[in-house]
Amino acid sequence: MAANVGGIDKVLRIVAGLGLIGATAAGVLPVWGYIGIVPLLTGVMGWCPAYPLLGISTCGKKD
Predict the structure, then answer these.
(1) CA-CA distance, 35 to 43, in Å (whole number)?
(2) Tens of pLDDT along 26-48?
(3) CB within 8 A of 63, min separation 6: which ones?
């Protein structure tokens, strides 16, 4: 399981995930907002299971 999520992608995923979870916890969004756990975990782990299926990697070039 090699990393396939790069720096900016990680930050955006973590911010979006925390935003969704926070808005749901505050009562702004309904319970579906807890789906924010998915981008949060993929950002923290640095690996997205959909990327290999789509042939995508935002990590940059490997030497």
Answers:
(1) 14
(2) 999 999 999 999 999 999 999 99
(3) none
